[in-house]
Amino acid sequence: MNNRTEEDRNLVELAQTGDSRAFETLMRRYTMPLSRFLQRYLNDSYDIEDAVQETFIKAYLGINQFRGDSAFSTWIFRIGINVAKHGLMLKHRQGVQQSDVGDKDADSKELAEAAADFDTPDSKLETKEVLALLDAALDSLPEEQRTSFELRELEGLTYEEIAWQMHCPVGTVRSRIHRARDTLAAALKTH
User: Fold this and answer.
1) Which fold has domain 141-191?
2) Looking at beta carbons, which pairs linking 161-165 to residues 24 or more positions away fall under 8 Å?
3) Domain spans of the chain?
4) Which residue has the higher pLDDT, 102 or 142?
5) Under CATH, which architecture does the 3-120 domain have?
6) For residues 136, 125, 73 and 75, what is the CA-based torsion angle, rounded to 10 degrees?
7) Do 180 and 141 contact (CB within 8 A), yes or no?
8) Could you report the per-residue pLDDT of 91-120, keeping only the tens digit for each?
9) pTM higher than 0.70, yes or no?
């Protein structure tokens, strides 16, 4: 288990005892990564901001249900995905009520079908399986690759910042991240 995962676990345990500062630390740590992650699902910056806020509210209210079976990051991203899916469905419902006949109806129908696909038991199971697969693939990476990848993708650091932090050349950082992405992509393809 890497240091970040262990730190998160300790912070979660403190938050579960009512330590609001521990939860605030988790929020600060994951607000930007969650925002970047949700950009894949939501296009509007206000929707993303709302989804992040709602995700953390749900996480705060449900922190005692976190059992530690997966990393906190996986748990918070899973909540974020569900919030984004729910937001898409609500937007669709509002769009159907407000739209008139034309291209908007075709777009709304597509969005409705996509949103409905998100909410099936099979889809939920698949999301859970993919996240577990990604967790396992991340854990299997050599420490330098995993750390470089997490600093880039979760923390949003530049290659130069990662190189400075890890005391290695920028080219090495790029190579590690490239190899990590290849490994994760291969793991997803097998799924």
Assistant:
1) Arc Repressor Mutant, subunit A (1.10.10)
2) none
3) 3-120, 141-191
4) 142
5) Orthogonal Bundle (1.10)
6) -130
7) yes
8) 655 554 444 444 445 544 544 454 444 455
9) no
